[in-house]
Design goal:
mainly alpha; 14 helices
């Protein structure tokens, strides 16, 4: 366990951000690896996997319910120096993960085709996306346990083991992707089916390694299946923090699905360009995301310890660091966005559409960085409802106008990219205001309770 209530806040944040950064890059690489090899199968396969991958936002919404709730509960227990309670909350989150993973896989198999029918541009894209989803669904189900274990580790200030596990999963995916997708060495090409299977096998390997890691007796947190039995009070505590965070990811699913729907009439190249461009943009944001994510356990432990001054210092340091990083990322993306796309496709129309997306939406990066920090802070404080409010505002102000614009004659993709800039800026400003409001309420109350 790493005590984050003492020492340099910035040093803690940057030290933790490095392995978090590496882990996030590795996770994104899994998606990019699939796209790289699937690109040889044509536009329909690229667009299909992109649209199907958007369904991952729904699973991410559900995994965040467990992940964020676990992080807040464990980090605050550590701040109170209550190891027994930290272990109880960790094991309760694993029990919740088993239920969540099983239900997700069952639901995913049932709705894969109806979902693709609702967002894909043509029959070939529907077929590719449905096949990929069916074979990718085990990976999504297993992520519940993986996220619960990784969040518990982050809550105690330990992040390196998860980086190694993610490196292993990416390595497995890199080895299996060309073999299963294109038939390297076997002569049996599974296409998009192989992309989903490669990811599922890779995630299964990662979960197995994490399971073995937690068997070590010297760990601060330990697996105890007897504590997996549902305890309503503990599940309620995890869900009260996690559900709003999960709702935020569900909003992202609707947001992304709306974009795919709006681009549908512009052809497969528009959807494929957005699919690749959004993943590239995600990769560009990783350094800032890593710093922001490191703030949650720092804030959680110090909030649990009753140190309000240190909580505010952590927020200030992380906001400054993230703003600097996102400003640099904006400059890089504005320079030559098409260069960032050519490693994934040679189709000129796809590159043009993707470059337009990157050129315009990268103007959101600084605002998005502020949103990341606010979200991480709300997680550490154990109240994620304010972030859900700001995300809901963005959803309303983006989705309805986007649907209207896409139905107009002369509709072009840049119309919704302009709208994205406006709505993301609005969300960032509202998030900052809600954060200041939350700090005034929570820190004063918490400090008075501690003093009493």
């Amino acid at each position: 366990m790493k005590d984050l209530t003492q020492g340099s806040i910035l040093s803690h944040a940057l030290t933790m951000a490095v392995p978090i950064f590496a882990g996030l890059v590795l996770v994104l690489l899994c998606g990019l690896i699939d796209l790289y090899f699937v690109a040889a199968l044509g536009e329909a396969a690229i667009a299909g996997i992109g649209a199907a991958g958007n369904a991952g936002f729904i699973t991410n919404a559900l995994t965040q319910v467990v992940s964020v709730g676990t992080l807040a509960a464990v980090s605050q227990a550590v701040g109170r120096r209550d190891r027994t309670d930290a272990n109880l909350k960790f094991n309760q989150s694993l029990g919740l993960s088993v239920v969540g993973g099983a239900c997700t896989m069952a639901a995913g198999f049932a709705v894969a085709r109806p979902y693709m029918n609702s967002v894909a541009a043509d029959a070939a894209t529907v077929a590719a996306g449905t096949t990929y989803l069916v074979w990718f669904m085990p990976a999504l189900g297993l992520q519940f346990a993986m996220f619960a274990m990784s969040s518990a580790l982050r809550g105690i200030g330990i992040v390196a083991p998860m980086m190694y596990v993610q490196a292993l999963t990416v390595t497995i995916n890199i080895i299996l992707a060309p073999v299963l997708i294109l038939g390297w060495g076997t002569g049996y090409a599974m296409g998009v089916k192989g992309a989903g299977l490669a990811s599922s096998l890779a995630v299964a390997g990662g979960v197995l390694v994490l399971w073995v890691y937690f068997q070590k007796a010297e760990n601060y947190l330990a697996l105890d299946p007897e504590q997996w039995r549902p305890q309503i009070a503990q599940w309620r505590r995890i869900l009260s923090v996690g559900l709003p965070a999960g709702g935020e990811f569900a909003i992202m699913f609707v947001y992304m699905a709306t974009i795919y729907y709006a681009l549908g009439d512009l052809g497969p190249s528009a959807q494929a360009g957005f699919s690749i461009g959004s993943r590239v943009l995600g990769l560009i944001q990783v350094p800032a995301m890593a710093i922001a994510f490191a703030a949650a356990p720092i804030i959680g432990q110090n909030f649990g310890a009753g140190n309000g001054v240190r909580v505010k210092q952590a927020i200030g340091h992380v906001l400054m660091a993230v703003t600097v990083v996102m400003t640099a990322a904006t400059a890089v993306t504005q320079w030559r966005p098409e260069l960032l796309l050519r490693g994934f496709t040679e189709d000129k129309a796809t590159i043009a559409d993707g470059a337009l997306f990157l050129k315009m939406v990268s103007l959101n990066l600084v605002a998005q960085g502020l949103i990341f920090v606010c979200s991480s802070t709300f997680q550490g404080l154990g109240n994620t409802r304010p972030q859900l409010i700001s995300s809901t505002l963005r959803l309303i102000t983006y989705v309805i106008p986007t649907l209207w614009l896409s139905a107009q004659s002369g509709f072009r993709a840049e119309h919704i990219w302009y709208l994205s800039i406006v709505t993301t800026t609005m969300q960032a400003l509202l998030s900052l205001w809600l954060l200041r409001r939350e700090l005034r309420k929570r820190l004063v109350f918490h400090q008075e309770a501690s003093a009493g």
